[in-house]
Amino acid sequence: MKLTQRGRDYLKAVLFGTIIASLLDVRLVLALCLSLLVAAGISEIILASSRTGDIEVQLQEPHLTCFKDGQAIEDVTIKYKRRRFVRVAVSSIRGPKGVDTISHETSSDSPTFTFRPRYSGRFQGLYATFEFLDPLGLFRKTLQITREDFVIDCYPSSLLKQVRQMAPITLALGERTGRAHGSGQEFYSIDEYNSSVERKNIYWKKIASLPDERLLVKVREANIPQAMTIGLIKTFDRGEKELSWMDLACEGAAILGTTIFSLGCDVILAFSSAGRVTKLEASDALEFRECLMQMSRAETGTTELNSEILEESEVCITGFKELEDGLLAVEISRKSSLLIKDTNAYPDTVGPLAVVYTGDEDVSELVNRVVRR
Amino acid sequence: MRTDIVKLLTSAAIGIALFAIYFLFLNSFLNVVNLSNLSETESIILCTQIIRVIIIFVVGLKYQIQPIIPIIVFSFEALLIPPLLVLIVFTNAPFYAIFMGVILTAWFGATAVVLEPYAIYVFARNLIRDASIIGVLAIASFELISVLFLSSLLSSVTQPVQGLTGLGTLIITQIRGEVGSGGVPNPAQDLVTTTALLLFFVGLLFYMAMGNYSLGSKLKVPGIIVVSLVGTILAFLWIAFAAVREPDIFVSLSAPAIILTLIIWGSARGK
What we know:
The structure holds two protein chains of two kinds.
Chain A: E1 2-3, H1 5-24, H2 27-49, E2 56-59, E3 63-67, E4 72-79, E5 87-94, E6 99-104, E7 112-117, E8 121-133, E9 139-155, E10 176-181, E11 187-192, H3 204-208, E12 216-224, E13 227-232, H4 242-263, E14 266-273, E15 276-282, H5 285-295, H6 303-312, E16 315-319, H7 326-333, E17 336-340, E18 354-357, H8 364-372
Parallel strand pairs in A: 3-9, 13-14, 13-16, 16-17, 17-18
Antiparallel strand pairs in A: 1-9, 2-4, 4-7, 5-8, 6-7, 8-9, 10-12, 11-12, 14-15
Helix pairs in contact in A: 1-2, 4-5
Chain B: H1 2-32, E1 33-34, H2 40-62, H3 68-74, H4 81-91, H5 94-128, H6 133-153, E2 161-162, H7 163-181, H8 191-211, H9 221-245, H10 249-267
Parallel strand pairs in B: 1-2
Helix pairs in contact in B: 1-5, 1-6, 1-8, 2-5, 4-5, 5-6, 5-7
C-alpha cells in the first residue's frame, strides 16, 4: 500500500496544522487535525483489509477484428464487491506490442478502449493495472491483470485491394476446370479452325451437319490447380523489427492469395508453427483471413521444416536475411518468391522469379508464372 | 460537478463561520470604540482603506490580480515609515515621531476592521479554486486565530477606546501579552461563537476529507462522510479521555497527533 499525492499533501497539512495549533494553542485546529488523522487511519485500515482478488474484468468482445490503419473498440466492465468504501479505477491499460491503446473512460467501472494496431497480424494479451483507493483517496493499492484470451486480429489492407481479374492461360495444368479455354480434356466450346489448332480437334460430326463448308474445331477447357500453396520461410527472429517484417509478409500473402482466388484456385498457407509445418487451406475470403492471422504467429523454422515448406509451396515468401544462407538462397531462387527487404542483409542468390515486395508491387505476373509451370 | 458542490458548500460554511466571529468583533467595535472625534489622519486612513478594499474587490471580480498588488495597496502607510525616519533623524523634531506613531497605530486599527472581512472572503474564494490542502489548513488556522483574537480583544475592555489609534494600540498591547502568555485566548462561550466554531470545524473537516478530491462515480459520498465522522467521534472520545488525565495539550493532543502521523506515513510506504 502506498500514499497517493493527495495522501502525502494531507499528512503534511495535518502535521503542519498540528505544529501551528500546538504553538499557538488553538485547540480547535488541534482537535481537527487529530480527527483528520484518525479518519485517515480508519481509511487506511479499510483499504488494507480489502481483498484485491475479488476483482473481475469482463471484456464485451474478447476477439476483436479490424483492418490495418483501422481501429477496434472494446468495452470493459470491472466488477468489484466492495464498491461502497473502496474505489477501483483503471490506472493503465496496455494492449499487445504493436498496438496503440487509447482510453475513453466513460466511468471508472466501465471504461472503453480503442485499439489501433500498427501492423497486420494477430495480437494477443491485455495488460491492465487497477488502482484501489481508500474512501478519502489517501492510499492506493495496485493490481495487475493479464487477459491472455484477448485477441485482436488486424487484417492486411491488401485484402481490400482490387486485383485484376485473371483468366488461366491456355497451357495451364491442374485438377480443376478453369472456366476458360485451354489444354484440358473437357469440352468447352466450338470455334472455327485455323492453322494453329491441332487437326485432331476438328469436329467432323458437326461439320457434316453444316450447310456450308466451314471447318469447326472443339475447344477444350483450361485446367487449373485445385489449390496453390504459399510458403513462409523464416529462419530469424528479427526482434524489434519482427512485427513490421511479419506485417509485410502478411500483406504479401494477402495480395498473392487474393490474386490466386481470382483465378478460381484455393489457397494453402504453409509455415512453421509448434515445431512442425502447418498447412492451412482456405477456399473463401473469410477462411483466408483466419489462415493469415495464424500465419502471422509463425515461428522460426529449422532447416528441415523450411525445406519441407519450400518443397510443398508454389510461391514462397521470405526475407533478405534468410537468403544470406547460400544453400537456402539457391533453393528459393528456383521458386517464384516474394522477397521482403531486411536492412543490412545481403542475399547470396536471388532467382529470376523473385519479386522484392515493399507493399505496392503487382504480383499477378508471379502467380501467372506459377500457373504456367 | 459534485466536487464543485462539495467545495462550494464547505467553503461557504467555513466563510460564514469566520464572518460570524468577525461580526462579534465588529459589534463590540461599534459599541466600545469612540469614532466621534477621529483625527484627520485616522479618517483618511480609514476612508482610503475602505476605498482600497472596494477597488481591489471589484477589480478582483473581473481580473486576476497578482498577490503582491493587494499587499502594496493595503500596506501603503508602511511605505511612509522610511521617509519619516529620515525626517526624524535629520530634523530631530518630535512631530514626525508622533505622526509616525499615529499613522502606524491608526493603520493597525483600520486594517483590523476593514481588511479582515476581505481576507476571509479571499480565503473562502480560494477554497473553491484548486488550493493545496497544506495551504488551506495553514491559512484556515491563521484566519481562525485572527478572528478569535479580534473577537476577544474588545470583550475584556472596560473603558471606551479612543478612535483607530486606540484600537491599534490595544491590538499591539494584546499581541504582546498573548505572545508572552503562549497562545490565543479561549473563545467566548456564547451561542454565536460556539455555533461558528462548530461550523468551521465541520466545514474544514469535510473540505479536507472530500472537498479537494475529485470523486469517483461509484464511491458513494456517505462512505467518506461515515469515515470522517467516525474519525471525529474517536478523536473526541480520546480528547475527553485524555483531557481529564492530562491538561497539557502537547501531551494529550499534539504528541498523539504527531505519533499517529508518523505511524500512518510509515505503514503506507509499501510497494
